[in-house]
Amino acid sequence: AARPSRPWRLSGAGSRSQGRHVCVNVKNIDPVIERMDAAGVEYTMSKSGRRAVFFRDPDMNTMECLEVSS
Length: 70
Known about the structure:
Layout: E1 22-26, H1 29-39, E2 43-45, E3 52-56, E4 62-67
């Protein structure tokens, strides 16, 4: 199936103005970023300095992967 057009911008992702979103905790964000780069997924690093990335799923929902220590 074709991906929907992208009428949104990720430049503001990570700010409190993004509203509600799903956050998945990961032990190491680097493999997540590598896989998203390889797949051509657009993402934005958190502007807060946290080790986190924001992106959109195929249904255009905002998603976050946040690196947490174990």
